[in-house]
Amino acid sequence: MKIDLHVHSQYSKDALSKPESIIREIKNKGLSGIAITDHNTVDAWSKLIPLAKKAGALVVKGEELKVQEQGQTIGELSALFLQEEITVIDFTEIVDEAKAQDALLIIQHPFDLFRHYWKRPEYWEKLSGIEAFNSRCILNSWNKKAMAFAREHNFPVTAGSDAHTPQEIGRAFVECDAQNEEELRKAIIKKEVHIAGKLSSPLIHAYSTIAKLNLMRPF
To answer: Which of 153, 63, 142 is nearest to 104 (CA)?
Structure first.
């Protein structure tokens, strides 16, 4: 199984990928599927999952959560293998809700200085793993730092393109010997996944600005 574990759709305010385009790119890139991780919303689930089933692809239900403490953002997490939306923003409440759903909480682009990064690493031991490769990091040294941290602390790792446009999908992924969603979940936990990926052009971030300003239709 080869799956990109960090993909955004048009339901993220800074992304432009239509559900149909995501499914097309899954097939074009030779992926088994993706994890849909829109920012604080699960609106894409109802659109993507029927399309994925028809195409014989896997869509892991996820959500990217902005975590706050005393009114300040302290980082972002991906909740993967969810059953329902997480709506809380407090770290402890997020952890409790994820555990109740048997979901995995993954630290996203933890050392990316241009995005929200974790200033409270003492919280990390309560989480499930680290995104060790993110294609939207400007510097690969940030990914290398994430991987080194994961190895030092024996964390499970994931990888994803962080795609906000169709062409980015599949630029990073995990590969493992899994036949279904539950086997994939167990492979991540057991650290039995292989990570592969390459960086996207820094210019790709311009699409996120364009999306926020509503200057382009999703495609």
So the answer is: 63
- Which domains, and CATH codes, for the chain? 2-212 (3.20.20.140)
What letter would DSSP give residue 200? P
150, 174 Cβ separation under 8 angstroms: no
Q: Give the separation between CA 22 and CA 31, rounded to whole angstroms.
A: 11
Q: 3-state class of 74 per DSSP? A: strand
Reference 115, options 175, 149, 43, 164; nearest CA is: 164
166: tokens are 């169709």
Work out the angle at residue 216's Cα, subtended by the Cα atoms of residues 211 and 217, and round it to the nearest 5 degrees: 100
Instruction: Give tens-digit pLDDT for 93-145.
Output: 999 999 999 999 999 999 999 887 777 777 888 999 999 999 999 999 999 99
Quote the CA–CA distance of 149 and 116 in Å, as a whole number.
18
